[in-house]
Design brief:
Pfam families: Bac_luciferase
GO molecular function: monooxygenase activity; oxidoreductase activity, acting on paired donors, with incorporation or reduction of molecular oxygen
Binding site for FMN: 56, 99, 149, 153, 189
Domain Luciferase-like: 25-350
CATH class of the largest domain: Alpha Beta
Largest sheet: 8 strands, parallel, barrel
CATH architecture of the largest domain: Alpha-Beta Barrel
Number of helices: 16
Strand order of the largest sheet: 1-2-3-4-5-6-7-9
Order of helices and strands: EHEHHEHEHHHEHEHEHHHHEHEHH
Protein name: LLM class flavin-dependent oxidoreductase
Structural class: alpha/beta
Distance between the termini: 20 Å
Number of strands: 9
Strand content: 5-15%
Helix content: 40-55%
């Protein structure tokens, strides 16, 4: 069967860029407005997207108050399973993927929640397996610190296997059109990649450079084959954020307007958060990024920050400015230029599709749907209609019992 490009859309309060909530036309309370979220899900469903994806954290990030008060992401978001249940009632085809942490939920609770969502949506649910990130999340559950990185992934392996057992013994395969909820994963550390290769059916990647994406996708497929799985059954979707307009000049003007809205202190705070909630203000901002101990947060993200800083010889201030301009994370251009990027990565095997992070909403959602999707269809890369009703149908994946997921 011919490979088909897959697209998922990430929900983030009004936009994935930390300054996106300030962009003209973006409702500041978007992430707590069910009507807005349902409308965006319908917009993506009308465009043929495979799924919408709710990321989640279980605490406000450990950053300085003068950063928290200047962002909306995480601070005021709705609980994903609840929101996706509402979206399920208002849509018919689009997949519904939610993040739920194994560190602060029991396998029985997770199995019940996703089995319920799968039945409510008639076979469109997906569980994004995470182990959580921060000590702030631990404190919300009465613990002093987050579990060690390696121990978390051992727990994740046990939890996923137990959830499978509960689903299978509970007979969900007999009532869900897709057999059981889809498993998604975004592991980037060695332990995370191992988990993704063993269990991930849709694997999200943070790769923003082609060489990194090729390495990641190749490694996941190799690991999956070593686990006895068909590599073609593991779909890798790197993240993609776009600012698109009919002309290059218009796209650059939009991008400039977006980057002007991100306060430098927020950009510095974001860097501090991903390095493990460290304090960089005591260091010379015009000096190199200091060698700091790897924390018990996101090992892969911390390594990526240091690799970029060393490779390009960036000072802290230059790294912050780079974050403000988002040159690594946002692709700016015309519909043809965006489609060229998508097609190149897809044809080279660096991606089976993309996990779209919309920098501001609803504007960047509308621009991608109205301008890029038609170009992808013109090139024969993206579907013109759904070929089934379940999430597995959209992704071309068979039921866990080996049968077709279509009914």
């Amino acid at each position: 069967m011919t490979r088909e490009l897959h697209l998922a859309g990430i929900y983030a309060s009004p936009g994935g860029n930390l300054g996106g909530w300030r962009f003209p036309g973006s409702p500041q309370a978007a992430d707590t407005d069910p009507r807005f979220l349902i409308a965006q899900a319908r917009r993506l469903e009308a465009a043929g997207f495979d799924a919408v994806f709710f990321a989640d954290q279980l605490a406000v990030p450990d950053v300085h108050p003068d950063v928290v008060e200047r962002v909306s992401t995480v601070n005021d978001s709705l609980e994903p399973i609840t929101m996706l249940s509402a979206i399920a009632a208002a849509t018919e085809r689009i997949g519904l993927i939610a993040t739920t942490s194994i560190s602060y939920n029991t396998p029985s609770a997770i199995a019940r929640q996703f089995a319920s969502l799968d039945r409510i949506s008639r076979g469109r649910a997906g569980w994004n397996v995470v182990t959580s990130l921060t000590d702030a999340e631990a404190r919300n559950f009465g613990r002093s610190a987050h579990t060690d990185h390696e121990a978390r992934y051992r727990q994740a392996e046990e939890a996923v296997r137990e959830v499978y057992r509960l689903w299978d013994e509970g007979g969900i395969a007999r009532v869900s059109p897709q057999g059981r909820p889809l498993i998604t994963q975004a592991g980037a550390s060695p332990s995370g990649r191992a988990l993704a290769a063993r269990h991930g059916e849709l694997v999200f990647s943070g790769s923003t450079r082609l060489e990194d994406a090729l390495e990641y996708a190749g490694d996941i497929r190799r690991r999956a084959e070593e686990e006895g799985r068909d590599p073609a059954s593991v779909l890798v979707l790197p993240i993609l954020a776009t600012v698109v307009a009919p002309t290059r000049a218009e796209a650059e003007d939009k991008h400039d307007a977006l980057t002007s809205l991100l306060h430098p202190r927020v950009a510095l705070g974001d860097l501090e958060f991903w390095l493990g909630s460290v304090d960089l203000r005591s260091h010379d901002l015009d000096g190199p990024l200091p060698e700091l101990p790897v924390t018990n947060q996101s090992h892969s993200h911390q390594r990526a920050v240091y690799d970029t800083a060393r490779r390009e010889d960036l000072t802290i201030r230059q790294f912050v400015q780079r974050a403000i301009s988002a040159v690594d994370h946002i692709v700016v251009g015309t519909p043809d230029e965006i489609a060229d990027r998508v097609e190149e990565w897809f044809e080279l095997g660096a991606a089976d599709g993309f996990n779209l992070m919309f920098p501001y909403a609803p504007g960047s959602i509308d621009d991608f749907v109205d301008l890029v999707v038609p170009e992808l269809r013109r090139r024969g890369l993206f579907r013109t209609e759904y070929r089934g009703r379940t999430l597995r149908d959209h992704l071309g994946l068979v039921r866990p019992d080996g049968g077709s997921s279509a009914r």
